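Notes from the pairing session

We agreed to fold both candidates in a single pass and log them together. This is the raw record for the first candidate, unedited. Please don't reformat it; downstream parsing expects exactly this layout.

Candidate A
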Amino acid sequence: MSARISVIFLLACLWPIVSPAQDVWEKDVLGHWLAPSFNAFAGAASLPNGVKYLPSPVDTTQLTFAGDFYRWQWGKMIRENARGTKTVRGNQAYYESQYGLNRMCIIMAQAIGLTITNAATNPRRTPKMVYFIYHTGETGAAANQYAKQKYMRRRPFDLMHETTWGKYDTYEDLMKPGNGSFPSSHTSFGWAVALSLAEMIPERQDTILRRGYMYGESREIVGAHWHTDVDAGRLTASAAVAYLHSMSSYRDSLKVTQEEYYSLKGGEPDTDAGWPKGRKIMDGPVDSLSALYYDDVAGYWQAKADRNTDRGLTAIDENDDSDLFFLRKFSEIIGDSLDPGLNTYMAAVLSRAREALEQSALELRSTAFRKRPYVQFGEPSLIPQDEDYYAATSSYPSVKAQVGWGLALLMVEMFPQKGNDLLKWGYDYGYNRVVAGYNYPSDVMAGRIQASSVLARLHADEDFRELIELAKEEYEYHPKLVTVLDDVPAAPIRDGYWYTTTGIALKDRPTQPGIYIHAGRKVFVNQR
């Protein structure tokens, strides 16, 4: 009896020593052990909430359910050949039904050209990479928690009275309370990891993003998710990654993981890599002969109904993609003025991102031409003055949707507390183009997906990251607009000049704190 007690006592003493070695990915970037339950950089309560910025999932009674139905049929055809043998793609989807870290290590090891070992094999080789993949992916999945619980959308295999097809899917797990079909958390896990690794290893961005994209697509093939669940999962993942960039713990982890990768692989990041090539990442535009085209047609007709409503007026009013327009809209959303003359770094970072988003979209557009809806159907658009110009340009992808969603993601990084409002506007800005008749829904979604890819590439550049930090610092410490008082002399309007309240001209920005007049307004200069 005493011997048994001694053994139990010995095991109890050893437990704190052996336990950490089994969970190497549960260390933070400084090497401190974390509680086993803390497996993400941020939880659902901190992240943007998909309920707030995404529309509710498509109901089976809606016209636009056609796309989900046809994609479900497509997935079933992909699984096996006529002899009942799994196809190459079907076999991939079958095994990719495994959620999370272990499968993602296998997938991304192929994409980055380096074996990623977890704690079950060799925790000493890539501990930082394992930690980073685990926490980034789980953060992406956490972004779906509230939407999954609220909507509890029925999964395809359940609605169609079938059985689960993925190797690792079980009925009990997929059907448990709070685990609805919308959005897809497999997708969010994979896309969040893909975006982050693409930023970390820009020379392999297309391969990384393609594998992350396919991980979500596999959920359609096995019948665990509808197509719109997967699309929503990519959007919530991109929102989560945008939020993560506001966290020093994530940025520090990305940095040390990048150092680990290149110390093992050799070389350094290729910051001259071009923009992500959308045709290598996504499936390309929907052909008018495809069954999937009916979903785009349904979306086009449904959006036409919005033209004679306030939604249509918004689509007309927001038919703009200039730097000043975006500064004005974001000023409204964050509740503070962003002036190009005062918030110079903010204006610069938005301008640079807009140019990159536009350039990338145009490069993708040059690879395939698709007629615009109003041209295809021979109907007038909501914005007739633009019809002649756009008739000769491709509908895929939507450039405006790509720019709007991309800039909204960028602003989430700088103003995370306004994340839901920024993302709601960014989403609706893309939908404007469907209402106006200039793009199909799939063109808009392609633009949003490509936007998140471009932001990953932009963040790979140290100069761009520094510009973001300068913009945030400038916003916090530099000139703030204040109410103009009645006793202030008429504000001079000579461009570029600053004036004292007594009218003395100062060509350069003041170096002393105080109240000055600039660009026709009274401002307070607050030096650090």
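Candidate B (folded immediately after A)
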Amino acid sequence: MKKNETHWAIDLGTTNTLIARWADTHAVTVALEELADYEPAWHTPLIPSAIYFQDAQRAIIGRPALSAREIMSTYEMQGIGPLARSFKKTLARSSQQAVAQIGIETISARQCATVFLQELLHNCEDYERKNHQPNRSRLQQIARALRWWRREGQVADLTMTVPIDSYEPYRAELYQITRKLGVSRFHTLDEPVAAALGYGVDLTEEKFLMVVDFGGGTLDLALVRTQPAGSGREGEQRKARLIAGRGTILGGETIDNWLADYACERLPAHQSALRPMLLAQAEAIKKDLSNKANIADSSYFLLQGGVHIEVTRMEFVEMLQRNGLYQTLETLTEALLDDCRHEIDEAQIDAILLVGGSTLLPGVRDLFERLFGAQRVHYWEPFEAVVKGAAVFGAGYSVDQIVHHDYAIRVYNDEQQRPEYERLVRRGTGYPTPNPFETRYYAVTEGQQMFRLPICEVGYAGRTSLNWMRRMNGNEYWVPSDAEETECVIALNEGDTLRLARPGQGQQARLRIDFNIDSNRYLCATIHDLLLQRDLRTEERVVKLR
């Protein structure tokens, strides 16, 4: 980051979004008053991740967008309309899918995210001009004027946080959108790592921090090691290293759906017709029952005609138990600890940091206090830690990260007559790697002139493991079910092909491929033709890893 230039950070959440900026020595959460609602218990300025389209290019976002909720009741019954929420989930997996509609014109998740971020950045620019422009030097004011003349955004340096179990295409989408909006220096940071940096824990000493980030759309767990700057060299940066991470698609919106289903079960009739009305109230009911300061031990859904469905806190806890919330938390925790047993023992963890509004659900904090002891569980920074940590990162805190998913080559299993996957990069691998990191040999069939190397990203999609099996050649293979393949696999380079100078001439190995991962997270390949004894590609970037 250039000296004296404002660094901005955005925590784009499924339900709410937060903004922060680096204020010379520390990170400050920014309250965009026209867009934000203040969370009552913690007084945090949360911007609802909601957008109401006036046309395909213009929209209102945040709190004003939610004021349209009442006039949107017909759309809630019939499907998508001009009001869009939860577009982050769709952007992460299928960016061209429609999430809003005006008349007959549909609006994709990519369009939605672009307009939402555009409006957000414009508001950040207005905030900066009103509150900090008078303090800028003459050179800084000239630089801002030049950015305007070049049609660049006034927010030039930005970090956005991403869920730990998101796929690389999600990062790529954010990068393309922000570049289009004029951001010249853009970074992404895993949400749990950002939380570790922004929680307020003393980072002048080495710490092992376990982060539980439970928000509106995802549940992420990570173990982060923070290290102070070395005393030997002036200007040496403090560093954080991600040791292991786990995640699943479970969040506050999931709980809202469970609550709506629970209320439907209490209705004598018309459950499907009334469910949209119940779902619209579920978030408020959930907050009531999660707020320990709330004296009342129950809350209720209100239906037409004064009919209400009461839900007590005990019934809420029992519902969470039946749906497996606490078991999921324990299972993911055990999986995370198992992933990093080679480096750290459970007793060495200095603190467990609870982040995200869903950590306020009854029983969540109690579970981690039971597992790790109350003295190690920190719960007083549930909303702002992630965005503040992203601003700290933007100001120069160095982070060493890992590859979060498995990466595999899709090959064809002749025996089973279906595709299978040959693991190339194991999740948890640090980068950059030595060159070569992996070497593989491939045969080509008689007369074959084109060679394809389809690289796929393989996540867990909420599972704790996948059934990789080692074979006689020393490599690991996975033959997924149709459901596993649909949910866990994303192909990254379907169209890439290599033309062979001479066609295949038998069953012997024809190509040797040396793989490595560079410092920018790219999988690189050197392809050597064993028949012609020459390199066809040299350290060529194949795909970017997550």
